[in-house]
Amino acid sequence: MKKDDLNAKLELSKEDMKQYGYTIIDHIVAHFETQDTKKPVAIATREEMDSLLTESIPNQPTPANEVLEFVMEQVIPQSTIVSHPKSYSFVPGPSNYISAMADTIATGFNIFSGGWAASPGAAELEILTMNWLLDIFGFGTKLGGGIFTSGGSMANLTALVTARRIKCGDDFSKAVIYLSDQAHSSNIKAIKVIGFKKSQIRIIPTDLEFKISLNKLKNAIAKDRLQGLEPFCMIASAGTTNTGTVDPLDEIAKICKDENLWFHIDGAYGGAAILANNGKEILKGIEKADSLTVDPHKWFFQPYEMGCLLVKNHNWLSGTFSEKPEYLRDVEGNESEINFYDHGIQLTRRFRALKFYMSLKTFGLDSFKKAIQYNIELAEQTEDILRKSPKWEIISPATLAVINYRYHPIDQKLSEKEIDIINQKISEKIINSGEALLVTTVLLGQVVLRMCLINPRTTIQHIKETITQCEVFGDEILSQKSDI
Ligand SMILES: Cc1ncc(COP(=O)(O)O)c(C=O)c1O
Asked: What is the pTM of this model?
């Protein structure tokens, strides 16, 4: 290697680093400034992306700015803008600039957030921010604990591994787990990952408001016991993805206590509603869970990837995940110095707590509360607009900033099948226009349009524009009824 061969050390000169970094910051700031004026939807086929991006492995260097320019022009624009005010589908990712910069610091310094000895500052910030969350959710900081994960799926998985160890030990062949037909698919995935068979899973039906039926849950538990099986865990939803519905947490807590079941709550998206004006009422009973998933990268406005699992007793996590390999013996520390690699699955972990800490400190919790309250009221205003229109029918009212509705003009005689087709086509047309990301879901067998309004920059004007656009498409499809 030549002495000054920067490439072979993967280095840039100081000036080049600065210029490169400033250019990137300019791009990010421009994105934050202009994203609302862009179209949120990115659509491309595999063939199109292959033709744009396929190349052989680059053995020789390319100038840094050239690579950057290519990425900014050809790669980044080919992504849905999940923080766009008209990005209504799935669970949007509103994010914020402070956290984006915090993530840049965490990556720039490549902080290892696995063990205390490597980064006491990172570990302490994770303990601190975890304590804030434990407080917010009434879990108590004395015994309570938790871990930041890559997202809600990993938090649910971490919870279920813990629940299985504590309730079943090594033999879980007769264990049975319960969740509603509206629970998020990541829970089923996690149940499969931890080795449960289909026959050990009970999907409990929901009522007309999409809440789990307590009667059916109790029946299922009783039946399983009569058959010599061992009910061990109940997963409730605090904000289902489809409709925002919160299961009756308080009543479920009682059933879990009476039946000695682990009580896990998936509040990945809806848990943040605890910060709304009547959050404690909406989520009554959330504090009674053994474990709770909340996703800061959803309604706590953090960029990806940041999920969180809270537990009532931090020893449950360390008891489940601690391994003591000889190569970590010198960095164990004392009991109070938490090694987060002992609280979850990952050993090497990025410094996720930093963005949560910096954004909460910078904006203040009150700003988060106002944003969440605003979103809830925005969904209610949307419901009001739709209810007053002769063209729309509400299928599930505004609940934790989610609303489901369908185009169904009162003066038209349409079959259920025709209404389904029209709404599917409305969604396709609006997505193809690129103006809004508005996909459908199915509720009670009906195809409906679903809005998840957790972006504090979405205004009622954005929503009115989208509804009007959908109405025009709906009328157009109706007028060409032969297509239906
Ligand atoms: C209720 C619920 N649980 C879990 C998840 C999975 O979270 P993630 O996508 O962060 O893994 C989601 C995602 O939308 C969700 O809405």
From this structure: 0.97
Contacts of 189 (CB under 8 A, 6+ apart): 153, 157
Q: Choose among 419, 473, 351: nearest CA to 104.
A: 351
Conformational region of residue 15, where left means phi above 0, alpha means psi within -120 to 50, and beta covers everything else: alpha
Say how many Å lie between the CA of residue 297 and the centre of ligand 1.
10
What architecture is domain 102-363?
A: 3-Layer(aba) Sandwich (3.40)
State the closest ligand 1 atom to the C-alpha of 152, by its place in the atom list counted from 1. Answer: 7
In short, whether 84's Cβ falls inside 6 Å of ligand 1 is: no
Q: pLDDT per residue over 424-469, tens digit each? A: 999 999 999 999 999 999 999 999 999 999 999 999 999 999 999 9
Report the CATH number of the 367-483 domain.
3.90.1150.170
**Distance from C-alpha of 143 to C-alpha of 25, rounded to nearest angstrom:** 41
Express each pLDDT in 269-326 by its tens digit. 999 999 999 999 999 999 999 999 999 999 999 999 999 999 999 999 999 999 988 8
Judging by DSSP bridges, how do beta strands 201-204 and 175-180 pair with one another? parallel
- Report the amino acid identity of residue 198: K
Residue 212: Cβ within 10 Å count: 28
Helix axes 353-363, 97-108, angle to 10 degrees: 140
The protein residue with its alpha carbon nearest to ligand 1, atom 5, reads 152
Report helix, strand or coil for 294.
strand
Is ligand 1 within 6 A of the CB of residue 184?
yes
Low-confidence ranges of the chain (pLDDT < 50): none
Separation of 1 CA from ligand 1 center, angstroms? 48
C-beta of 405 in contact with ligand 1 (< 6 A): no
Strand partners, 310: 146, 292
Q: Within the chain, which residue ranges are assigned CATH 1.20.1340?
A: 12-41+43-78
Q: What pLDDT is attached to residue 329? A: 76
d(CA 20, CA 42): 27
